[in-house]
TrEMBL record, chain A:
Pfam families: FecCD
TM region positions: 48-70, 103-123, 135-155, 224-249, 270-288, 294-312
Gene Ontology terms: biological process: siderophore-iron import into cell
GO cellular component: plasma membrane
Keywords tagged on the record: Cell membrane, Membrane, Transmembrane, Transmembrane helix, Transport
GO MF assignments: transmembrane transporter activity
Protein's UniProt name: Iron ABC transporter permease
Native source organism of the sequence: Streptomyces palmae
Subcellular location, record wording: Cell membrane
UniProtKB/TrEMBL annotation, chain B:
Entry GO MF terms: ATP binding; ATP hydrolysis activity
Keyword Membrane in annotation: no
UniProt protein name: ABC transporter ATP-binding protein
ABC transporter domain location: 3-236
Length: 321, 267
């Protein structure tokens, strides 16, 4: 993380980074050069911390959703979270001057995500039961519905607005500010801990609903609790960082292939790997094309997909199916 | 552990699938539940492992209504091996699956202890699968997979086992071995079986279901009468005890034509 803070449009030596961070955290040591201090403490540090939180949040959310809907293709956006958030964000970007009745892009995206998930929950349940297939198909349908509205708004947008929209949709942590971090940190850490506590029950879901019931699990209640928790973390993350793709799909599989499918280990490890991965990708996004920045969504897939495919070919247990 | 299903009635949609079903398994007994496809056998099991709540009637395990127990405490008494349990994702090894049997013994904060490891090890040994403990479950043969699922149920340390077609798709030797294994545990068992010869070989008692109703219950030869085999299963057959003590069924050359078989009343 220190390396990630030190490198960027302006490179700051590592010892200076440590000095500045130490100064701010403990109050000890001498304040450095004001410009460097500004870069390190006000821009880079929150950005790197946010990248780590976003990566961790997307990774655990992906792990949980893959287990809950029993589908290896599931990712944090399978229930329409991203299309809801996109609609919220695009509404604010194209129809207003950046705020809508005091609501910024982040809040609008969060509200859109909540609306989409709520709709999917209502449509995906029957008699209070959430069946995986109905849930996924409802998510896809609601996703297309929101996408239609988003596309229409994009067609009417000015080129400048369109660029903002594109950049938002592909995701970025460039706008990270200290005042966002407490909420995001709280949500990501508490949901990671809470979901890890459900690790044993998540394991049991893997053997099918009826067998999980015979193991003493209230499958329908468990599924609802897990979906609410994972939607909360996805909605929060997408609100501050946009629609970063691929992390939530790939990191869970990557960690599962290397450490096994026990959720009690899988969840914390996926959070850690997701955090590291997104910090690295963010670092690349602002160094490859210096001083310009690339959206994270492009790079997560560009580097992740080939590595994932290599891992997939190397794994022998997949040969049998 | 005694199982008693008392006058259980279940309607799905407008169709009654179980009609006043009453059956019993005395402690240590192996009871076979037989009947043609769609007669309600799996539904009876679902009421026992608490997946389907009967509209009327009670399921008692050791005297307690299973719906008055919590899901977890009911699962500490009753373990099930079901047909949905095959497959699963990759990266799951045999001992992972068997360890799932410990799920009802823990709450959210519970960690695996010595008794968990011991229960898993004993189950692996009993089912003869310890040598494959680290293998991926997707690489197993059908017979090996059923052993793994039975080991998971035994790791649950249940006092009642319910088995849904445990021996389907297995070769004949694997069937015999698995059934001997169940008998050797001494656990009260209710097993749904399609193969009547196997049912006759394994079980102390049989219960025959037809169109959601119990039509016969009791000792093997008392249930497998030519009349029941004709009326319920639609075959001409006789069951008799051979000199070696095993009950075998001899089937007629042809299935009966439909007008010889009374059709169940649908209602």
């Amino acid at each position: 993380m220190t390396v990630a803070i030190s490198i960027g449009a302006v490179t700051v030596p590592l010892d200076q980074v440590w000095g500045i961070v130490w100064h701010h955290v403990s109050g000890a040591g001498a304040p450095g050069d004001p410009v460097t201090d500004q870069i390190v403490w006000n821009f880079r540090t929150p950005r790197v911390v946010l990248a780590a939180l976003v990566g961790a949040g997307l990774a655990i959310s992906g792990v949980v959703l893959q287990a809950v809907v029993a589908n290896p293709l599931a990712d944090p956006y399978v229930l329409g979270v991203s299309s809801g958030a996109s609609l919220g964000a695009v509404l604010v970007i194209t129809l207003t001057t950046g705020t809508l009745g005091g609501i910024g892009v982040s809040s609008a995206a969060f509200l859109g995500a909540v609306a989409a998930v709520a709709l999917v929950f209502v449509l995906g349940q029957k008699g209070g039961r959430l069946a995986p297939t109905r849930l996924v198909l409802s998510g896809v349908a609601v996703g297309y519905l929101f996408l239609a509205a988003t596309s229409y708004l994009q067609l009417r947008a000015t080129p400048t607005e369109l660029r903002t929209v594109m950049f938002w949709m592909l995701g970025s942590v460039a706008g990270a500010k200290w005042d966002q971090l407490p909420i995001v940190t709280t949500v990501v850490l508490t949901t990671t801990v809470a979901l890890t506590l459900f690790g044993r029950q998540l394991n049991a879901l893997l053997v099918g609903d009826e067998s999980a019931t015979s193991l003493g699990i209230d499958v329908h209640r468990l599924r609802a609790v897990l979906l609410v928790l994972s939607s909360l973390v996805t909605g929060t993350v997408i609100a501050v960082a946009g629609g970063i793709g691929f992390v939530g799909l790939m990191i869970p599989h990557l960690v599962r292939l290397t450490t096994g499918a026990d959720h009690r280990r899988l969840l914390p490890q996926a959070a850690l790997v997701g955090a590291i991965y997104l910090v690295v990708v963010d670092l690349l996004s602002r160094t490859l094309d210096r001083p310009n920045e690339l959206p994270l969504g492009i790079l997560t897939a560009l580097f992740g997909a080939p590595f994932f495919l290599w891992l997939l070919r190397r794994n022998k247990s997949l040969d049998t199916i | 552990m005694k199982l008693r299903v008392e006058r259980v009635h279940i309607t799905l949609g407008h169709r009654p699938v179980l009609r006043d079903v009453t059956l019993e398994a005395t402690p240590g007994a192996v009871v076979g539940l037989i009947g043609p496809n769609g007669s309600g056998k799996s539904t009876v099991l679902r009421t026992i492992y608490r997946s389907l709540r009967p509209q009327r009637g009670v399921v008692r395990v050791d005297g307690d209504d299973v719906w008055s127990l919590s899901a977890r405490s009911a699962a500490r008494r009753t373990a099930a091996v079901l047909q949905d349990a095959g497959g699963g994702p990759t990266g799951v090894c045999v001992s992972d699956v068997v360890a799932l049997g410990r799920t009802p013994h823990h709450g959210l904060l519970g960690r695996d202890g010595a008794d968990d490891h011991q229960a898993v090890d004993e189950a692996l040994d009993l089912c003869g699968i310890r040598h494959m403990a680290e293998r991926d479950v997707t690489s197993l043969s059908g017979g090996e997979r059923q052993r793994v699922l039975l080991a998971r149920a035994l790791a649950q340390q249940p006092r009642l086992l319910v088995l849904d077609e445990l021996t389907n798709h297995l070769d004949i030797r694997a069937r015999f071995e698995l059934l001997d294994l169940i008998r050797s545990t001494g656990i009260t068992t209710l097993a749904v079986l399609h193969d009547l010869d196997l049912a006759a070989r394994l079980c102390d008692q049989l219960v025959a279901l037809h169109a959601g109703e119990v039509v016969a219950a009791g000792a093997v030869l008392d249930v497998l009468t030519p009349g029941l085999l004709r009326d319920v299963f639609g075959v001409a057959a006789t069951a008799s005890r051979h000199a070696d003590g095993v009950v075998r069924i001899t089937y007629g050359a042809q299935p009966l034509s439909l007008d010889q078989v009374p059709q169940p009343t649908v209602g």
